[in-house]
Amino acid sequence: MERERLREDRIHGNAMYPVSVYPDIQQLNGDSILDCHWHDEMEFTMVTEGCAVFQIDMNTVEVQAGEAIFINRGEIHAGYLKGDVPCVFSSIVFNPELLGSRTFDTVQEKFIGPLVRKTVIPPFHIKADEDWGQEILDHLKRIFADHAAGTETCEMSTKAYLYLVFARMFEHMRPAPLKGTVATGSHDKVERLKSVLGYIHKRYPEPLKLKELADEANMSEGHFCRFFKQMVQKTPVDYINYYRVQQACVQLENTDHKIVDIAMDVGFEHLSYFITTFKKHKATTPSQYRKMFYENVAMESALVQV
């Protein structure tokens, strides 16, 4: 499944059912299995095969097959392969409004409200070595199974399972640090990174200089480079090139534009450098990528018609 579907600008679900379930997402090329991004929804991701290292804001956690992570709304997250075994994972992304009520009640006041406002910190690594963790993992498996089977009641059961998940998680939540404490410094770093990523995502077709990115983060160039590499696991130049390649893939999949025109559209000044960079990130050339994409589309269409 294409990781691009988890971009932060994607609409998850709809107004009536603000939930999207992404089953069996497979690692593509390289060590990156989940690109650095964030969104306003909450998310549970369960690793089903292999092992991965996930970064959630300033926290890094190694997740084995059969374990899961929780990502609260607005938290920057990314995933990287750990070891040689390919990683497969499933995710559910949902708007916390799903857990709301028509009227403000005790559940909203005591549990959902603090979670949404982030006045409590839930556990972000869910393992089966304790009963509460195993119960949560079982509930998540049922959500994925119900959606895969297309059960008639999957919308209702998903909401019910999420309530049960948070009920068990709440027993292990802790109060968030007060503003002005040392621990809240990480929030400032995350917000600076969001600002820089937003700047790149908006201006990637233009020439981008290191100084303007450093200014956006209100840092010196040297400090910014170290900060960015620590947070994203890529240098600023590597990330810009990576993002441009991702945007090129969208055009390769959805237009018949010439390769050279796509290269220029996404910010590459030279075709040869674009092809070299594309091959570095996708392990194939742009032309081959387009060909393989349409072959896969044709194959999927044929299977549907059988």
From TrEMBL:
InterPro entries: Cupin_2, Homeodomain-like_sf, HTH-like, HTH_AraC, HTH_AraC-typ_CS, RmlC-like_jellyroll, Tscrpt_reg_AraC-type_HTH. It comes from the Bacteria. CDD domains: cupin_RmlC-like. SUPFAM superfamilies: Homeodomain-like (SSF46689), Regulatory protein AraC (SSF51215). Keywords: DNA-binding, Transcription, Transcription regulation. Residues 194-292 form the HTH araC/xylS-type domain. GO terms for molecular function: DNA-binding transcription factor activity; sequence-specific DNA binding. This is AraC family transcriptional regulator. It comes from Paenibacillus amylolyticus. The lineage of its organism: Bacteria, Bacillati, Bacillota, Bacilli, Bacillales.
